[in-house]
């Protein structure tokens, strides 16, 4: 990309975003933090099953399935952060970036442990995202 | 999503989660017809966007994304049917097989049309599955 | 979804399905229970490998791969059930719903065990589905 | 699927499976060129549907689904080439590398056209792979 | 990618790799913005092919493949943001959250257009992320 | 990857890129062996983490993630082999088929072991592919 087109691109970026994502211009416009929450509950469930079992193969499966579910939590949160939230939301909720960064890191942390408190912390962060999400929908 | 179903959904959220996922013998035991419903709403949204646009490329994208979302609806419904529902549920709700068969066929039908009524029919069938699901959770 | 659109949707359902899936209206129309059978053989193979090994890491991999293959069995069976079979097939083979429900549950069961008999039971159910499938093709 | 390939497929099924999967040292050891063939038949089916329709949206879906099926053909062929075939097979069938290279390129070509002859050429190459595969199983 | 940014990328690559992957506490610790860049170049390539063609089916495929590649760009960027960057990086580069938010939004924008400038804007943002990434690796 | 092949790879990369993506007839024409290399480095990283840990659950995760990464290596190599390389390349580099066959087999081998030397052997083979790739781009 040459300097000129880069500057043009930057100029575009500087002027365009204010109206770019208003009035739902996406294919479907359906978002719901419930998707992340359900997978996070599944993560917690996998931990409880892991902790309650003495069967090595079962525990292997719990770890494996938890890994997949935690990845889905991250994915659903990333989609909300990038696709749903707009600059005007960020003005009103300046904590959004930090909140999503920590929540997706928390989802990553649930892959590395079977401590249920880590999953509950993730669920609390998703609940906070959910609260803000529905406020913006009012 | 209209006001009524919105309020119902909120009511569900407010009252249900505390006991929602007890008594389950699978690795995580978390099921929720909301997963199928959210994707089906997305299918409906894609149809509305398709119908409201004159841009051929945009319409191509709407068709493409709808296809993926409808596939996710089928997947979430199949998982509920096979993994969540048990013989004792089927005794009480003998219509379950037919209900899921038609609902997954309806999800397939939404791939083939942009008639919003087909998506609404799918949503109605998911709502019926949702009603039975939560009855079995009581 | 409000009451009105729900009723409309139900009305649609009452009138439409009779002709909906006649005369193969899908994109390709290619189905073959061999897809489910091959994956189920793989599930059985993973169990045999698991049982014949003392290497913990190898056994972990066998469990992991079996989980994926069993999921593919479920997927291929679900597709057959929903997409291939039509109301007229169900009239002639009223056991189809129960057969697929049990077969997909059996596929799920193979995730939870390394008992080869469970995989063989799954293969027997797929063989029965295969038999009916090819009868309908005559 | 035409009568000839149908009969061949049936003949294969009737004679082969009993000893099909012996002598294999991988986690499951189950391979079957039928997986690639079924997806390639689906590719051909999508082309026929595309060519037989005047509905732009339907044609878009046919192109989209064909693309996915052709990718699956490539995947199944690649797995056979890398995972199933061993140096001793290559000594006996020195054409294997070229055969797989051309067959996977042919699968790629089916993405770019709706000329049924291209899909039939792909099916012929898969049939040749299938022939060699079952010879090595004897 | 033009000569200048290409040379910058090469300069980065020429100096960095020897120590690139030290000091990492995750399962593998390998990150590289090149993954996002390569997919973004593919997005740009799809746009150019789209713009240079009169064949409707080819254009449909270009849109479809671009959609998938743009999704991969988002995924690779999200992983970098959540998994690679740590609080100490954010202290030094407080613009990181905003940079990733806009870059992933830019990746989303490339799905909605075939204006090559939008892909170049995305590439410029990835180049900026790449620059910071390799600074943190020093 | 040893120092020598690493330096060779870097030297090759330093000279080639100016015309890298010309003369390509696919939808985007962007190929880069870096995709396979990055995943192979991740495979090596997973092995090192596995070998350096006494935590059974962590080791399970390392095996699982390595399996996925090794599969991605195979995929990226297969794509290069089938999609990028043309008959004229093969005339000039008649070893290509054997090189890719062995490299993808080597990627498969990394699933079955945590011996870092196996991953380094894979990286050396990818470096050789990378060297030829960039020569063909000159």
Q: Could you tell me the mean pLDDT of chain A? A: 85
Strand element count of chain A: 0
* Spatial extent as radius of gyration of chain A: 19 Å
**Tell me, what's the shape of chain A?**
elongated
Largest sheet of chain A: none
| Percent of residues in β-strands of chain A | under 5%
Q: Would you identify the regions of chain A where 5 or more consecutive residues have pLDDT less than 50?
A: 1-26
Biggest interface between chains: B-C, 28 and 26 residues
- Helix proportion of residues of chain A, in percent? over 70%
Count of helices of chain A?
7
H/E element sequence of chain A: HHHHHHH
N- to C-terminal distance of chain A: 42 Å
**Class by alpha and beta content of chain A:** mainly alpha
Oligomer: homohexamer
Structure notes:
The structure is a homohexamer of 138-residue chains. With 138 residues, chain A is mainly alpha-helical. In chain A, 78% of the residues lie in helices and 0% in strands. Chain A has seven helices and no strands. Chain A has helices spanning 3-15, 17-20, 34-51, 56-84, 87-92, 96-111, 116-137. The first copy, chain A, is elongated and about 50 Å long. The N and C termini of chain A lie far apart (42 Å). Mean pLDDT of chain A is 85; it is low at 1-26. Chains A and F meet through helix 4 of A and helix 3 of F.
């Amino acid at each position: 990309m040459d300097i000129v087109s880069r500057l043009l691109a930057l100029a575009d970026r500087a002027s365009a975003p204010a109206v770019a994502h208003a009035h739902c211009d996406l294919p479907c416009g359906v978002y719901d933090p419930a998707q992340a929450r359900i997978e996070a509950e599944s993560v917690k469930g996998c931990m409880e099953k892991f902790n309650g079992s003495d069967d090595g193969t079962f525990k292997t499966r719990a770890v494996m399935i938890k890994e997949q579910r935690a990845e889905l939590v991250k994915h659903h949160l990333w989609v909300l952060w990038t696709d749903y939230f707009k600059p005007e939301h960020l003005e009103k909720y300046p904590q959004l970036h930090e909140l999503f960064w920590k929540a997706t890191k928390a989802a990553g942390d649930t892959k590395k442990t079977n401590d249920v408190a880590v999953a509950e912390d993730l669920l609390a962060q998703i609940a906070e995202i959910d609260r803000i999400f529905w406020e913006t929908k009012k």
